[in-house]
Write a structure and sequence with these properties.
By secondary structure, the protein is α/β, with parallel strands linked by helices. It has helices spanning 38-45, 64-78, 116-125, 146-152, 168-171, 183-190, 245-251, 260-266, 299-313, 335-341, 345-368, 407-416, 426-438, 446-455, 460-475, 501-507, 516-527, 531-539, 542-547, 556-561; strands at residues 20-24, 27-31, 53-59, 100-105, 156-164, 216-220, 255-257, 276-279, 327-333, 372-377, 381-382, 385-387, 477-479, 484-485, 489-495, 512-515. The strands form four sheets. Strands 7-8-6-5-9-3-10-15-4-16 form a ten-stranded mixed β-sheet, sandwiched between helices.
Length: 569
């Protein structure tokens, strides 16, 4: 299969790029010409590049069986409502179902089962790399990302996630390190901050060096931005050094927020200053099933705020939309994956439902702003979920309805208890509170009680699997692994029916069965940006050269492929 290169001279093409999909046996290759320079393109065509926005959504760890599970749950809830058919079952479909255009192959360069780092890098850099790699190629060399390429061309950029902002998926769009665990360094790169040689970890002396690599960042992970030793309840640090990136960002004029109320206030603010860094938890944000509604914003709330802020910032004072570039926004539903690792079907479900609500909101934004394209997919599938376990042909969605806590939340309390640390024993707590109130099981068997009581003495990972397993067994949901699988994932795309020919042409780039790197190339093609130019800019960046060093392993690929899956979420 060949790439076909051709410089497009027709205005209906995707900004000077002719993209051909060559079908052979169900496989498609994207053929991209080198993107033209924006100024040159405007001069040649006699007008400025049309404004466009790209919203790229990643439902981490979300496979097609997870979609079926969540759809079945809602259909069960809908059976007595108006969309019920006379034969007794609902025809309700999810926000994603009508957007399905294909599927994505997810393998990394060193294994058939990718992790989130390599999976996200395939989308951001359009390159295969080894598991654990963040924005670097197989040799550990930095590769320019679609976000960085967009920023070079004048787009505003944003990252929204329910994970730590330094976690694998968001990091892969704006950082370059050879190992995903280098989150302290990722935090420095997100702010483009490198301490001077003589500042002795005093960030105040080097605050002027902060110039965030992304215009808007919302999520968790505050602990990687505050200095070691800052152990207040909100600002608990997980850094290995005393760098105070948070203070450096504030002193450099970055808008910094940590409270949901502060994010809410931005919706009505007369002006919203970018760059914006909003981190609402020391680590990952709470599962949707556990989230305190007034303490942390939801994925939907962060997304609607990000869309409003970026839209307003890219709308010029004279309302001439063609005089401003648009924006690139990556949105990650991260905790779908983590619940899959825990084999926790109820937490998995609730984060999927929140992702669907977010897709609905983004689709409404696209309808109101036809210069916007929505693409959604997953980096991989997690858990190997099966709906139905031997020997019966059934699964029970209704079992998930009364579950009120994640296995993570349950185990955090169980493992903190001992039989003599209070008035209530673990046995009584499980029988009187955990099973009936947290897991919705009011007729627990002795075996179920014993399983959950026994989980209190296990390590965190085994405890969560044991607790999740009790609910899964009742629902007849099976899991093949606590890690990832090599299954293909769904590909979804949407553009307004009132969109331009550019949007309609772009939608045709996302169809059929695609490799994850092909999706990355299509994202860059729609924005008319050059990943090659972004790579050149990245390698010239001093902080990147200092931080994205090759780790001591002689074989990066083999070293990462053999790491336990718990390190590859």
């Amino acid at each position: 299969m060949k790439y076909i290169h051709h410089r497009c001279r027709f205005p209906t093409c995707v900004s000077g790029i002719l993209v051909l999909l060559l079908a052979l046996g169900g496989n498609h290759e994207l053929a991209l010409a080198a993107p033209v320079d924006a100024a040159a393109a405007g001069a040649t065509q006699g007008h400025l590049q049309p404004k466009r926005n790209l919203i790229f959504m990643i439902s981490d760890g979300f496979g097609q069986t997870s979609e079926a599970m969540a759809r079945g749950f809602v259909q069960q809830q809908q059976q007595n409502q108006q969309n019920q058919k006379q034969d007794g079952y609902s025809q309700w479909t999810s926000a994603l179902d009508s957007l399905l255009v294909g599927s994505v192959r997810t393998r990394s360069s060193d294994t058939w089962v990718t992790d989130s780092a390599a999976g996200a890098t395939a989308y951001s850099c359009a390159q295969k790399t080894y598991n654990g790699a963040i924005g670097v190629d197989e040799g550990g060399r930095p590769c320019g990302t679609v976000l960085e390429a967009a920023r070079l061309r004048g787009y505003l950029t944003g990252l929204v996630t329910t994970a730590r902002i330094t976690h694998a998926t968001p990091a892969a769009f704006a950082a370059h390190v050879v190992d995903r665990d280098m989150e302290d360094l990722i935090a420095q790169q997100l702010l483009q901050f490198a301490p001077s040689a003589n500042n002795n970890n005093n960030t105040a002396a080097a605050a002027s060096t902060v110039a965030p690599a992304v215009d808007l960042m919302l999520g968790g992970g505050l602990c990687h931005f505050v200095p070691n030793g800052a152990n207040s309840e909100k600002n608990q640090s997980c850094r290995a050094d005393s760098l105070d990136l948070w203070q450096a960002a504030r002193q450099s004029g970055v808008t910094t927020i940590t409270q949901k109320q502060e994010l809410d206030a931005l919706a009505t603010a007369a002006s919203r200053k970018l760059p914006l860094l909003g981190l609402f938890a020391p680590g990952h944000m709470a599962y949707e099933i556990d989230r305190a509604r007034t303490a942390q914003p939801s994925l939907l709330e962060m997304t609607t705020s990000a869309l409003q802020i970026l839209h307003d910032a890219t709308t010029t004072v004279n309302n001439n939309s063609n005089s401003s570039n648009g924006f690139f926004l990556m949105i990650e539903g991260a905790r779908i994956d983590m619940a899959g690792h825990d084999n926790d079907p109820a937490a998995h479900l609730r984060d999927i439902l929140e992702y669907w609500r977010t897709v609905d909101a983004v689709r409404s934004f696209v309808d109101a702003h036809p210069d916007t394209l929505l693409v959604s997919t997953s980096d991989h599938e997690t858990g190997g979920m099966a709906l139905g376990i031997d020997p019966e042909y059934l699964w029970n969605p209704q079992v998930l309805d009364p579950v009120a806590r994640s296995a993570e939340s349950v185990c955090a309390r169980l493992r903190a208890m001992s039989d003599d640390d209070g008035d209530q024993s673990v046995d009584d707590y499980v029988a009187e509170t955990v099973l009936p109130k947290h897991l919705g099981i009011r007729n627990a068997t002795d075996a179920e009680v014993d399983t959950v009581v026994g989980a209190a003495g296990m390590d965190s990972k085994r405890c969560k699997r044991a607790v999740g397993g009790v609910v899964s067994k009742r629902a007849h949901i099976g899991w093949s692994t606590g890690g990832h699988t090599g299954a293909d994932v769904g590909l979804y795309a949407y553009g307004s029916s009132n969109g331009s020919q550019l949007q309609q042409d772009a939608l045709r780039m996302f169809r059929g069965n695609m490799d994850n790197t092909q999706v990355g190339r299509a994202l860059a093609a729609y924005l008319d940006v050059s990943l090659e130019d972004a790579t050149k800019a990245v390698v010239r960046r001093p902080s990147t050269l200092a931080l994205a060093k090759r780790r001591p392993d002689t074989n990066l690929a083999s070293a990462s492929a053999n790491k336990p899956y718990a390190d590859h979420n």
